[in-house]
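We give the chain.
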Amino acid sequence: MSERKPYPSDLSDARWALIEPTLTAWRNARLERRPTGQPAKVELRDVFDALLYINRTGIPWKYLPHDFPSHGTVYFYYAAWRDEGILAQLNYDLTGLARVKEGRKPEPTASVIDTQSVKTSTNVPLTSQGTDAAKKIVGRKRGILTDTIGLILAVTVAGAGLSENAMGIRLLDQAKETYPTIAKNWVDTGFKKAVVEHGARLGIDVEVEVVNRNPEKRGFHVVKRRWVVERSIGWIMMHRRLARDYETLTTSSEAMIHIASIDNLAKRITDETTPTWRGTY
């Protein structure tokens, strides 16, 4: 890390030690393909700290403080890590470590799905937006699939008009490819028969159960199984970049969720915490 006053979002040495091997391996593979073979001058830790700063504070790219690498440089690495699956790989690796720390096997066998519709900023293309008629939100819809302790296993983002069924099918497909050990999944009543049938067709013993809310209770209340994934959405929303969807590409929206998840996972593994944007712990 370069000599500068640290920000609350910066990685500690312990958390950087979890992330550094993957990023260094990626850089070395890139250098082998470069004609000159000369190493890049930018420090990867500074780049990742810059991404955490953007993710945590919600600032636009061009407002990145000058003691980080330039916003163009940081975006170059971010786009490469997004497109080459490095952020998703980090999320996968750290999830396994976090599960082992909790006394569980690295590969989960059960999961929970939920979606969240969020408003978008003015720079988001209309073609990638939609309307969630039920929630009266014009914007995008996020879908996440977590394990039974709330660790994010799969992420998808689309226009808010996309049905719960379509989101659920995307998430189940992604989860099957990444975690073939998953054998059970819980969803709420927004997900219909199509998700149940698709789960049965995946080739592994996936069972989708519908968990209903108690119609006699009004307002928010804890729902069996579902509270886990709802809490996970709350965790990522503490990262201000995710309070609204600012990303031009839906793949960038997914990448920002991965960065928030990586941040949370690394702190979970190392038993660390940093102040949230609300000023609490």
About this structure: Residues 13-33 form the longest helix (21 residues). The mean pLDDT is 88. The helical segments are 13-33, 44-57, 71-83, 86-101, 164-178, 193-200, 226-237, 250-270.
